[in-house]
């Protein structure tokens, strides 16, 4: 008997809708979405009461690939997904179900939903406040103002995207048509923003260098290298500085900072690091977690986070409360990925530092698949999947 081939994309939409409605497990919905683009558009990936996923590249290959994996922490399995839109590009964050993707050879900045493949284009890198002139086709195609050195420099788009664009976050899902994007950029970690439909990034010129930023309600929070928290009102078009809350002075050493909303509270997380000079890399030692008391502008250090989980790295940091943890899971843990790319100016390699910090046991557990001497590029990033 002659075999007949089936084109799954030709199934009646009504039949596809019935099939999709019968799928209740998130991982099964993910498999459903991977069949073809039409099935992908029908998939409704739940975005509540879920553990985040980890987007990992096909790092075992020696070639640049569009193949990525989505690691499900519930069963420790990786589900392959093709992201042609991210092939050979850099992740500069994830926020509200979207990956922030920048090109190494052009100045484009896109938001990509890895499930639906929907894309939203943000103003490009050459539309940031530090860029004076953009000459595509030249080896050094950008002329920009260096805030740290107070002088004019030239450089390539690749360098600008690697070292002069650190993080992009969103106030809401782009499908809401009413979002704001905020970015940390330049060697001095300045702050810029844009709204939906804007063609350029607007500088927030408050003379501060930022380590991390988050949106919470109608406010933008930014923690500075000067150990203070700036709070901006973003209810109007231009963010306005409302107040600055200092952080207790002390000797904190070498660290990265993260801001996260957890059960309605703003937490500051300091990731304490050490340098491994022989391997030219850095390693996480432990974390300190502090809760903001805004009423009296004070902070208190926490020994646990109410049984919940926190996820930090290149992503816009987020948390999972104890009531949403899967059965059998223990909380009070911080899941972390590497913030660094290939090399920074200090000659420190990125793409190695991944693991889980247990706040109760004060110990770190490394991800089994990410403990070799091979750097993972681009570094994996946490994402909360959704299909909108």
From TrEMBL:
SUPFAM superfamilies: Nitrous oxide reductase, N-terminal domain. InterPro entries: F-box_BR-signaling, KIB1-4_b-propeller, N2O_reductase_N. Residues 72-358 form the KIB1-4 beta-propeller domain. PANTHER family: OS06G0707300 PROTEIN (PTHR44259:SF114), OS07G0183000 PROTEIN-RELATED (PTHR44259). This is KIB1-4 beta-propeller domain-containing protein. It comes from Erythroxylum novogranatense.
């Amino acid at each position: 008997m002659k075999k007949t081939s089936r084109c799954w994309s030709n199934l009646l939409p009504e039949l596809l809708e019935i099939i999709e409605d019968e799928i209740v497990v998130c991982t099964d919905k993910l498999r459903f979405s991977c069949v073809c683009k039409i099935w992908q558009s029908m998939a409704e990936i739940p975005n509540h009461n879920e553990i985040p996923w980890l987007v990992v590249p096909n790092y075992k290959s020696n070639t640049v690939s569009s193949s990525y994996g989505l690691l499900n922490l519930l069963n420790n399995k990786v589900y392959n997904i093709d992201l042609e839109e991210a092939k050979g590009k850099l992740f500069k964050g994830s926020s509200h179900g979207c990956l922030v993707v920048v090109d190494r050879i052009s100045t484009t900045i896109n938001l990509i939903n890895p499930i639906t493949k929907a894309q939203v284009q943000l103003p490009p890198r050459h539309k940031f406040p530090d860029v004076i002139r953009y000459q595509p086709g030249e080896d050094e195609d950008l002329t920009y103002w260096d805030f740290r050195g107070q002088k004019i420099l030239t450089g390539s788009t690749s360098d600008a995207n690697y070292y002069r664009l650190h993080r992009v976050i969103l106030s809401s899902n782009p499908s809401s048509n009413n979002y704001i994007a905020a970015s940390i950029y330049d060697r001095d970690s300045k702050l810029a923003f844009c709204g939906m439909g804007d063609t350029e990034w607007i500088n927030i010129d408050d003379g501060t260098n930022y380590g991390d930023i988050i949106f919470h309600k109608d406010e933008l929070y930014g923690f500075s290298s000067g150990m203070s928290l700036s709070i901006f009102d973003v209810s109007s078009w231009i963010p306005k500085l409302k107040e600055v809350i200092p952080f207790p002075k002390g000797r904190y050493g070498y660290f990265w900072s993260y801001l996260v909303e957890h059960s309605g509270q703003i937490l500051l997380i300091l990731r304490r690091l050490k340098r491994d000079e022989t391997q030219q890399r850095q390693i996480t030692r432990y974390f300190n977690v502090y809760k903001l008391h805004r009423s009296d502008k004070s902070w208190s250090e926490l020994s646990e986070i109410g049984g919940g989980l926190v996820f930090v790295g290149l992503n816009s940091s987020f948390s999972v409360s104890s009531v949403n943890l899967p059965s059998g899971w223990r909380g009070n843990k911080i899941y972390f990925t590497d913030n660094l790319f290939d090399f920074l100016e200090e000659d420190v390699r990125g793409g190695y530092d991944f693991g889980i910090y247990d706040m109760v046991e004060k110990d770190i557990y490394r991800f089994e698949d990410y403990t070799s001497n091979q750097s993972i590029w681009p570094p994996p990033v946490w994402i909360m999947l959704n299909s909108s």
